[in-house]
Design brief:
Blueprint: H1 6-27, E1 32-33, H2 35-44, E2 55-59, H3 60-69, E3 76-78, E4 91-94, E5 99-103, E6 115-124, H4 128-153, H5 164-194, E7 203-205, E8 218-219, E9 226-231, E10 234-239, H6 242-250, E11 270-274
Parallel strand pairs: 2-6
Antiparallel strand pairs: 1-2, 3-4, 4-6, 5-11, 6-7, 7-8, 9-10
Helix pairs in contact: 4-5
Length: about 280
């Protein structure tokens, strides 16, 4: 099998995004690009040249309706509601006809190919101090879920290289993960996200994937309306308050980062290949 190039991954993600956009428009589901994808739309009118994924966000009610009802002739959706093997707290729409992922650290069972991420937007506590404490607790669950997922898939041969007592402790930890510790953390994240309904406060946040610990605390007005914006060869929705949201996350977001930081989010342990 031939491995996909960065541009091929982008173009496959773009096709999935177009399909998600089609479904959302037809069914009145609100969405916006998020994070690097939103920045790409604003600054590059498409992908950030070195970015390798697509991020979409929906208010939690729209997200849950999308997950229950999404249908496509070309792509599939996975989230914990339809696949309990998922070790992520959000959804992914993926291709499984033309591409396949190879990894030592899977996020679900079964074959999946190139995907785009679909995140729920949840309410955030109005008091910034309370929000930070709440967000930090959820991030701790997220970090523990990532760590336990790694332990679940560590080859047992690794343990032969470390002392006997550590070997035993790590063996026990690995089997604890296999029997559901990772899924416990994921369930807690989702439960805490749903506990503050979107629109019940004056702020919203994204707490289901928190790699950069930005502790997002966005005014509800920023996501009140969305407008079409050029993205590659199509148009997709971006929240009207994108400037405030991007400045809160990236500061002077129109300034290109140093050359050494122009790298994608792709991991060395995830590779995509064209199916034969």
């Amino acid at each position: 099998m031939k491995e996909l190039t960065l541009r091929e991954i982008q173009l496959m993600g773009l096709e999935i995004l177009k399909d998600v956009h089609r479904f959302c428009v037809e069914n009145g589901i609100k969405y916006s690009l998020l994070d690097g994808s939103m920045l790409g739309a604003v600054r590059h009118q498409g992908f950030i040249p070195w970015d390798d994924d697509v991020d979409v966000i929906m208010p939690r009610p729209d997200y849950e309706r999308f997950c229950r009802t999404y249908q496509s002739d070309s792509y599939r959706l996975k989230y914990r509601g339809n696949d309990k093997s998922c070790t992520i707290a959000f959804a992914r729409v993926y291709d499984d006809k033309r591409t396949v992922m190879k990894t030592k650290l899977p996020w679900c069972t079964g074959d999946v190919g190139v995907w785009i991420d679909i995140f729920p937007a949840d309410g955030a506590l109005d008091d910034i101090g309370q929000h930070r404490r709440y967000y930090t607790k959820n991030r701790q669950y997220w970090l523990k879920s990532c760590r336990s997922r790694e332990w679940e898939y560590v080859p047992y041969q690794y343990f032969k290289t470390i002392p006997l007592m550590s070997n035993f402790k790590n063996y026990v930890r690995t089997w604890m993960c296999k029997f559901g510790v990772t899924h416990y953390y994921i369930r807690q994240m989702i439960k805490r996200g749903r506990a503050i309904p979107f629109g019940s406060t004056h702020y919203w946040t994204q707490m289901m994937c928190m790699g950069d610990n930005s502790q997002e605390h966005n005014r509800m007005e920023t996501f009140a309306e969305c407008s079409l914006m050029p993205f590659e060869d199509t148009q997709v929705y971006v929240m009207n308050g994108y400037d405030e949201v991007l400045r809160g996350k990236f500061n002077d977001y129109m300034q290109l980062p140093p050359v050494e930081k122009r790298v994608g989010n792709g991991s060395s342990y995830i590779h995509f290949y064209w199916k034969a």
